[in-house]
Structures are given as C-alpha cells and as structure tokens.
Amino acid sequence: EGTLFVLSKNRLEIDAEDRGEERKKETVYYSSTLKEFVMKKDDPIIAEYPTDFLVKMVRTMKSDYVRIALDTDYPMQMDFDLKSSSGWLEPISVRYLLAPRIRERE
Fold first, then answer.
1. What DSSP assignment string belongs to 36-89?
2. Which residue(s) pair with 66 in the sheet?
3. φ, ψ at 53 (rounded to 5°)
4. Residues 76-96: what's their mean pLDDT?
C-alpha cells in the first residue's frame, strides 16, 4: 500500500492505492488553488510513501495550514501547528518526517 506524490511546475498529484480493497484515489491540486506552492527544480518530483503511516500522521493534524516538503526518493517533511481543543493554550509546532518507499523505476 503506497501513496504516490508527483510534483511538477504547476501541480501536485496524489495517487493513493489500497491493495486490500483494490481502490485507487487520485487528487490533483493546482498551484493557483494552494496557499503557497514552491517548486525549486525543473524536473518533476516523484516519491511514494506508505499509506498507513501517512493516514495516521494526517489524522493528528488539527491545523489550517500544513507545509509539505518532498523530493524524489527522499523523506517527506510535514510542518504544522497543533492547536489545543480548548483554545487557551499556545499552538505547538509539530514536524513529521516519513521515509519513502523506494522502488525500481522503468
């Protein structure tokens, strides 16, 4: 089970596979619809991450803004501020790192 991220000059494509149920979900975000979009390379970035860990990480994010940094076959970094449910505590800055799945590409 893996989630493939493909980042190019003006879009982020996310393809999630669930082999157990043989489902595939594809989501595309265009740079014009994101709060911030920075692409520092000319070549597309292609990286796959374990879906089960990715889902666990995302479920803990109670934030309006998440910063995702990734590179081909390199760990994904996600930064966000965790807000308290009561709202009276200061937000805590959180950083997650997730190792990629590295496979032979054709």
1. ------SSPEEEEEEHHHHHHHHHT---S-EEEE--TTS-EEEEEEEPPSSS-S
2. 80
3. -70, -40
4. 83
